[in-house]
């Protein structure tokens, strides 16, 4: 039913929007695909239609769904906020209703200012949607060889359909933001980038600084970071951070006094050979790495992790048997962005070297190396050299990081903030990836900042 509804939406709403556009870029208003009737906000929808290749007048159109949420209690002259989802290859539009109905978001989203959500190129409701079905993937890469082959076959299908994957990346998304802003008649504006959306935000600041009042970046992924080369270390550091929290908690420490040694022994066991579950399946080291990567992003999952790791150390792999990887990416878009923005600047040989002899870090090596095989098959050109360099800016920017984050650790944000004359760095303890979703304190600081970006945010709530 879900697939049918998405196809119905694309057929009846986005496709007419694409064909109705007489010149590109353009914006076509249309009814919202989701039902917002019970919400108090005034919500309108449309599709931004842009050329896949802006430098080619004959290029195919690309449709980006847009949802505009008017502020409930608008502050006079407050510029709107454009929200940038993560991934890459994730989505924003399908989450709008949930974000607005969740009580924890009500003090922030579309309260003082209009908020604008859109799916970046290749996202779930974008046209084309670059999803590749039946692929298991985390931010540590395609899990198994069958996932690599499925992604490669999918890339060939995209090319056969006339899609040029060289135009799905952060640099192009930054240009799309300008098209969206102009189409909606927006002058000054704020950006809120989340996860890989922070990379799009930083790229926008670098190439299109005009009219930007301020930027909030939550769970920061800077341009100079290395996706494949650095992730073994960030994953291992996050796991050890969780273990440290367990050691500092009397009950957890008493239950699992040798947790770090057991986790390392568990990792070595998987690295030596795939482990058999009670379901008869063999689970390779990449499966354990994928489990740790996805679990490290979620606060609720982290609270169970010491117990689960101890169970696996004892030979009970039921947690892997029942574990389902997060399904939030259009996997082909994820690959297209990374091939252009990251992989072309990195070395496959360096991935294993950076993992060194750390068994936890080594769990992610093979899946991260898989990126290189897929990118080679996709044939996407890497971005300009500038896109791998650090960004420096005078635009007021709030850097928000979680204490534990296997993909976007706080040291990334702190280092990037040091290059910003008007940057503020905040690390929120006892939180994970996507701080504004987890922490009322973070939401309070973000709201303060968006209303007055030139003032230091009040950090008193961090004490709690």
UniProtKB/TrEMBL annotation:
One of its GO terms (molecular function) is hydrolase activity. Pfam families: Abhydrolase_1. It comes from the Bacteria. Residues 80-440 form the AB hydrolase-1 domain. InterPro entries: AB_hydrolase_1, AB_hydrolase_fold, Pro_iminopeptidase. Keywords: Hydrolase. PANTHER family: PROLINE IMINOPEPTIDASE. This is Proline iminopeptidase. It comes from Alteromonas oceani.
């Amino acid at each position: 039913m879900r697939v049918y509804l998405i196809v119905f939406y694309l057929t009846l709403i986005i496709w007419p929007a694409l064909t109705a556009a007489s010149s590109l870029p353009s914006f076509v208003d249309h009814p919202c695909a989701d039902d917002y009737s019970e919400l108090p906000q005034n919500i309108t929808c449309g599709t931004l239609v842009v050329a896949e290749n802006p430098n080619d007048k004959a290029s195919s159109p690309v449709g980006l769904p847009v949802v505009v949420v008017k502020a409930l209690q608008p502050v006079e002259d407050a510029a709107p906020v454009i929200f940038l989802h993560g991934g890459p290859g994730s989505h924003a539009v399908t989450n709008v209703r949930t974000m607005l109905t969740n009580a924890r978001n009500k003090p922030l989203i579309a309260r003082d200012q209009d908020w604008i959500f859109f799916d970046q190129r290749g996202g779930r409701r974008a046209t084309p949607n670059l999803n590749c079905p039946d692929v298991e993937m985390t931010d540590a890469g395609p899990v198994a060889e069958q996932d690599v082959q499925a992604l490669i076959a999918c890339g060939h299908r995209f090319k056969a359909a006339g899609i040029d994957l060289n135009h799905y990346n952060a640099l192009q998304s930054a240009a799309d933001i300008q098209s969206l802003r102009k189409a909606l008649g927006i002058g000054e504006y704020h950006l809120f980038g989340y996860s890989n959306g922070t990379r799009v935000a930083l790229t926008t600041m670098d190439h299109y600084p005009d009219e930007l009042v301020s930027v909030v970046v939550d769970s920061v992924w800077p341009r100079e970071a290395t996706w494949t080369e650095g992730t073994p270390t960030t994953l291992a550091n996050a796991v050890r951070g969780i273990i440290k929290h367990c050691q500092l908690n009397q009950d957890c420490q008493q239950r699992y006094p040798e947790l770090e040694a057991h986790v390392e022994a568990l990792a070595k066991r998987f690295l030596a050979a795939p482990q058999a579950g009670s379901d008869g399946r063999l689970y390779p080291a990449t499966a354990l790495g994928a489990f740790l990567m996805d679990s490290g992003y979620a606060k609720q999952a982290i609270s169970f992790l010491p117990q689960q790791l101890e169970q696996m150390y004892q030979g009970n792999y039921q947690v892997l048997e029942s574990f389902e990887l997060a399904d939030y990416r259009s996997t082909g878009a994820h690959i297209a962005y990374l091939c252009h923005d990251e992989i072309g600047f990195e070395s496959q040989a360096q991935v294993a070297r950076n993992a060194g002899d750390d068994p936890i870090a080594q769990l992610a090596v093979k899946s991260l190396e898989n990126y290189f095989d897929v990118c080679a098959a996709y044939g996407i050109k890497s971005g300009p050299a500038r896109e791998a360099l650090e960004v420096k800016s005078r635009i007021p920017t709030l850097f928000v990081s979680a204490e534990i984050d296997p993909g976007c650790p706080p040291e990334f944000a702190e280092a990037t903030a040091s290059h910003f004359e008007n940057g503020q760095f905040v690390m929120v303890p006892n939180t994970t990836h996507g701080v504004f979703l987890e922490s009322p304190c973070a939401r309070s600081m973000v709201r303060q900042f968006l209303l007055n970006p030139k003032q230091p945010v009040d950090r008193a709530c961090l004490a709690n």
